[in-house]
Amino acid sequence: xxxxxxxxxxxxxxxxxxxxxxxxxxxxPSLQEGLLKKGLGFSDWASARLFRSRHLAxxxxxxELTPFAKFPINGYDVDDPGVIFENWTLTVSGAxxxxxxxxxxxxxxxxxxxxNTRHICVEGWDVIGxxxxxRLSDFLQLVGADPAARFITVNCADDxxxxxxxxxxxxxxxxxxxxxxxxxxxxxxxxxxxxxIPTKIGYKQAKYLTDLKxxxxxxxxGYWEDQGYSWFYGL
Amino acid sequence: xxxxxIEIIQAKGKNADGEEEAPVVVARAVYEHPFVVRLxxxxxxxxxxxxxxxxxxxxxxxxxxxxxxxxxxxxxxxxAFAIGGWLGGGLQWHLTFMWIYIATGVFYLGYQIFSGNxxxxxxxxxxxxxxxxxxxxxxxxxxxxxxxxxxxxxxKHAYTTAIGLGVLSVLTGLVVWKPIxxxxxxxxxxGFHYARIWHFAVMWAILFFVLGHLVMVILHGWNNFVSMLTxxxxxxxxxxxxxxxxxxxxxxxxxxxxxxxxx
Lengths: 235, 263
Known about the structure:
The structure holds two protein chains of two kinds. Chain A folds into two domains: about 1-50, no CATH class; about 55-225, Sulfite Oxidase, Chain A, domain 2 (Alpha-Beta Complex). In chain A, about 25% of the residues lie in helices and about 25% in strands. Chain A contains six helices and ten strands, in the order H-H-E-E-H-E-E-H-E-E-H-E-E-E-E-H. Chain A has helices at about 5-15, 30-50, 105-110, 135-140, 165-170, 225, and strands at about 90-95, 100, 110-120, 125-135, 150-155, 160-165, 175-180, 185, 195, 210-215. Chain A has a five-stranded mixed beta sheet with strand order 2-1-10-5-6. The radius of gyration of chain A is 23 Å and the shape is elongated. By secondary structure, chain B is mainly alpha-helical. Chain B is elongated and about 85 Å long. Chain B has a three-stranded antiparallel beta sheet. Chain B folds into two domains: about 1-30 and about 230-263, no CATH class; about 35-225, Transmembrane di-heme cytochromes, Chain C (Fumarate Reductase Cytochrome B subunit). Chain B contains six helices and three strands; from the N terminus they run ββααααααβ. Chains A and B meet through helix 1 and helix 2 of A and strand 1, strand 2, helix 1, helix 2 and helix 6 of B.
């Protein structure tokens, strides 16, 4: 083989690597957002496939708990949206047989579960807390939620909003939480009622709940999701 | 050399009277890197760059491995050396490119195993005796041990370790992403909190490899660099010069891996 032929082969082999340049699409400003959205969407799709409704989050001994004083208070806006407890009800709507206003006493009348689970923030830190409350699945049964509905959406006193897939909502460790460390939930931690979902990242676990809707179609996703974070974010 | 195609590169010489002489050998070349390996190498180079850049962006949100209260920061990574601009952006890049990173890794490993090409890079017990002479050569000005194949024992060690670190980066990352669904993996790593530390440590180990790799690429020159683009390495030093191949004939030890169109 002469030198010319060798150079020809080299060029041809080099050209075969051009598919690598397709990754350059991520550097094109007009394409970048859409591609990353697709990537995040694919991750969410995979997350939903990986979720096992009967698989429980690890629970911990009391000795492993993060002291209550060192349990971070995270809100997107204010630590205390000033809920007036006497007037507070949870407004239930959507695909349910018994929509309407539900009092805290009605939630507390359901079997109470207490669990020591890990709370993981999207920022990367994690704490182990002791949470108590009623199973969301029990509450959904109480209000007669349509078993075919796919999502739960919630609104909060601080205008925060979130949504959940039905599989996670029915998970036995998903609680309507009204106590932490066996004490009534404090205002800063989301009193009178918040979500505790050990199988989800922190921002899915909305505080100061005011509204709960059972729905077939997701019309509002979530505050942080609307900023560009993952929707499913199962752990 | 087993499994690689060898070509003899010739040039037609001319004598003083302008008449053509018999072709003379000007160089030899060996087909060192199959197409799949080169493709995976470059896709992975891009994916790794994005994974590290976006990973450091995510790390910036909580640059610590201790408690949240009180928070003691380990290191303030500059925003200019991170990808994504903010935590949500970093996560978008990380959760997108992780699929490219994983797919490339799986494709590469599958190819290496099923083609048998893994023998070129896999560090095995028979490479152990060759490690110390190479270390002496690289770090203590020792004589250069004769090279008989594409990679010397120390190179094989480095590449095998790098591939192992790649696998670990995925496993530790899966635990950080899904500590509950991969709870047995999380348990092996000491739980979510430790998995995050391992994930970070593995990244630095990979960066350490990349640094050494880039230094060696620069030291080994142009022909070596080109071989990762075209597959062919011109004048490889391990090629025995007094090869008995007769002039003007093309020796092809193994058709496997020969590019199409080679006469």
